[in-house]
Amino acid sequence: MNAATPLVLLPGTLCTDAVFAAQAAAFRAAGREVHVTPLGPERHVDGHADAVLAHAPERFALAGFSQGAITALAILRRAPERVTCAALLALNPGAATDAQRATWSAWRREAHDPDARRAVAERLRRNVAPARQDDRDLAAAIRTMAVDTPGASFEGQLEALASRPDAWATLADLRLPLALAVGREDSVTPLALHERVRDRLPEGTPLTVLEGAGHYAPLERPDAVTDWLREALIAPPDPPRGIG
What we know:
The protein is of the alpha/beta class. It is built from ten helices and six strands. The model has no long low-confidence stretch (mean pLDDT 94).
């Protein structure tokens, strides 16, 4: 990859650019151009993808976390020629379940209330690794991101999650260097799911397991995620067999 290729990092649901603060700071300190783009009020995954593409550099390396990874996958479907390589963390390529839609519908009704977003964040932050459940700084970071996320953005994020199409069939069609990662103790998008994802991707696609991390790996293990992104986006390996 060209040393000047910018990086585009996509946060997840109820996440601001703070979720990638450590990684963005490390890459900027090394002279990289970094764009951290939280998901906005668009109500469909393709709308989020188009919004990112409208403001992204012409060519870029792409990484996404959780819903950001879902959006990154949509970008790879819609404009693969603009992406040099990609890194997907905590990805679920499937469509939403009925139970998920019911939960998100309830959250959506109060999306514009900061106290309600804080309450949702309190529920979500329990998806960190068990050893970090009582980490007050980590919990505060997740709550702060929720309060700082505009209500319209949270509402759009929930609509996009609920309406997203099943993307399993598209995985094998990806034709660029790609890397996966998941926290060892992620109960939202678990390791077994990522092993299934890897099996759908071209042979040789790497899957990194981040030890000591749950779902919020960029905050739980910031240095490990930085190292993974550096390997995946700054100096990606040759494309897996079957690509090109």
